[in-house]
Amino acid sequence: MFYNFLKYFVGFFVRLLYPYKVENMPPIEDKSYILVANHKSSWDPLIISIFFPRPIRWMAKKELYDIPIVKFIFDHTGVIGVERGHGDPKSTIQAMRVLRDGEVLGIFPEGTRVQNPDYHNGKSGTALLASRTGTDILPIYIDGEYKPFRRRRYIFRDPIPFEKKKLSTEQYEEIMYDIMKNIYEGE
User: Fold this and answer.
1) Model pTM above 0.90
2) pLDDT, tens digit, 9 for 90 and up, residues 26-66
3) Is 128 within 8 Å of 105 (Cβ atoms)?
4) Is 55 exposed, middle or buried (0-12, 13-18, 19+ CB in 10 A)?
């Protein structure tokens, strides 16, 4: 209910202030997805949630829960808090449960807002989640700056299918590099 309030009511005003164009969105089936994107602004998860046809369970750094209004919003929209800097088994288990339940998980794999991309900065946990659960990844490239009344583009890249299997740490890192390259270059 609160998610829909943010999406439609708050979204109406956000769309007026920060117009956008969505390109190449594939047909969205009723199954789990991992939605991944480059991260330019704190507005990213809200705006993607506004135009995406299904609810998204975002992963966000745990430190944001220290801000009371943000904690309230996160608690009421199903955000998964992540302890950064090391593997966080609790958030990984929560994310796997979200995917097994057929929901959409949203991740900014670089873990922070980025102005200058480095494909090696993508956290391999995204590839681990996709591989362990056999969940397709939907990459999105956010193009343009967040300036009032200036249009940005959200460009969907081709979905990346995954089969359910366990891989090595090095394989997850290689896959993540390819995912980051796909986000930025569309390959």
Assistant:
1) yes
2) 999 999 999 999 998 888 999 999 999 999 999 998 888 88
3) no
4) middle
